[in-house]
Amino acid sequence: MSSEQINGYTVAYEREELQFPVYLLALIAAVLVAGGLYNGMPLLTALAIVPLTGVYYNLPLLETGRWRIAAGQYGFVLEGLGLIDWRAIDGIDLVSKDDRGAVSMELHVDLKVPVAQALILDWRRRSFLRSLMRLPWSWAAPRKIRVPLDIMDKPAPEIHATLQRMWRYYRGQQPPPTVPGA
Description:
Mean pLDDT: 86
Strand content: 25-35%
């Protein structure tokens, strides 16, 4: 099963505000490279590596049409992690987080079992170049996955309510068929 075969509820990165900082960093890098080449200053050209690393890390934010979070009958899918069986999930909570006065919303997914047992499809192995890019999730604890929702294209309460509803419905279903070669 590939990422193009995911059916069901999908969430992508927001299309409006996220792209500007990435393009701004790219512009700064281009100005540094051009200034270094024009003035014959290799140090200025080398300095362009700093904003270029920021552009490369945040490159997935420019891919707004691709899903980052998905859910279907077999489980909950996170890009760069894989397909998590609904029955391996212990809880899905919407958490409000206060960072220096700015309130952000996060989805916390608690697992009943270690992630290696929870995954139906394991997509953690990525190419080296892709592994340097941003992921839409992070580990909050060994069995807790944290997903920031403020950068997604749907409102946080809607994402949480839909995933909760799907989790409650599908966790009692029969296990999914095994996928050969996965």
